[in-house]
Amino acid sequence: MSFAQDLLEQAEHLANRDGANPKQASLRRAVSTAYYALFHLLIDEAVGHWSVARHRGRLARTFDHGSMKRVCDDYVKSFYKAGKPASELLLKEVAQTFSELQLRRHTADYDNSYVWTRALAQEWIDRTGIAFTYWDTIRTQDESQDFLLSSSFPDLPAHKKTRRP
Amino acid sequence: MFVPTEVRKDPQINAAIRTVLAEESPWVRYIRYSIDQDWTGEWAVFFRVVLSDEVSSRTRRLEITSRLISRITDELDLPNLGMMPHFDFRTESEQAELNDPDWAPPTA
């Protein structure tokens, strides 16, 4: 099982480990872990293209949370600007889930006033699982690979996008 | 928080809420929102959605909330809105227990 899959499984474990009265610490770590599961799924996929295996760990550390969120937000907006092309719906869902999850992760990690319920934590874990499934479906598509390239190098000049009808 | 007037798009947001509420009643009781900056400093719309207690099973809740995210996002006209929407959900009984004024029913 991949590291990203292990993290998703661990998120589920954390959300369910405390019986009827879950601790806020468990729920907050669960949501944060779900975010990192998706984060690592995408960066592992991106650096997997690098042929020199020993460089991949270093490359993975260059990914920036804020930049990846901006890439995801821009992708969601461009999806609507292009008239919601059906071929890109699943990638839009992955990008939007990433952006949402990152905010949840920020709340989970830093906002002590926010009260988490198990249902809410599970909801974000489930949504992460759906993003995993969607990604597995679309990971080899051109749009998905372009998306990974933008996530890897957010300052790359934009190229003219060829959308399929 | 002070929100620049060029950022405020209340009619557009309220229209999206009305449309989706009509579609998703009675599963959704009400929706509130605020416009604020996210942790990266980008302006965003933060929706707070209160669900019926009947939406209690894990599967049902995921189904309803996923549809709500898609439908509200579809209705918002994002390129024109210029902000990302973000969503948070609670059931009526969760809100009753927390008694959070930011999540209270909207006044008419």
Description of the molecule:
The complex is a heterodimer of chains A (165) and B (108). With 165 residues, chain A is mainly alpha-helical. Chain A has helices spanning 3-16, 24-47, 56-60, 65-81, 89-110, 118-138, 142-152. In chain A, helix 4 (65-81) runs antiparallel to helix 7 (142-152) and helix 5 (89-110) runs antiparallel to helix 6 (118-138). In chain A, 41% of the residues are buried. Chain B has helices at residues 10-24, 58-75, 78-81, 92-98, and strands spanning 28-37, 43-51, 84-91. Chain B is 41% helix and 25% strand. Chain A binds chain B through residues 66, 69-70, 73, 76-77, 80-81, 84, 96, 99-100, 103, 106, 115, 117, 119-120, 122-123, 126-127, 130, and chain B through 38-40, 42, 56, 58, 61-62, 65-66, 69, 73-74, 77-79, 84, 86-87, 89-91, 94, 98.
Instruction: Provide the structure class of chain A.
Output: mainly alpha
Strand order within the widest beta sheet of chain B:
1-2-3
Distance between the termini of chain A: 36 Å
Estimated radius of gyration of chain A: 16 Å
Name the beta content range of chain A.
Answer: under 5%
The count of helical stretches of chain B stands at: 4
Features:
heterodimer; A: 7 helices; 69% helix; B: 108 residues; alpha+beta; three-stranded mixed β-sheet; globular
Helices and strands, with pairings:
The complex is a heterodimer of chains A (165) and B (108).
Chain A: H1 3-16, H2 24-47, H3 56-60, H4 65-81, H5 89-110, H6 118-138, H7 142-152
Helix pairs in contact in A: 1-2, 1-6, 2-5, 2-6, 2-7, 4-5, 4-7, 5-6
Chain B: H1 10-24, E1 28-37, E2 43-51, H2 58-75, H3 78-81, E3 84-91, H4 92-98
Parallel strand pairs in B: 2-3
Antiparallel strand pairs in B: 1-2
Brief summary of the model shown:
With 165 residues, chain A is mainly α.
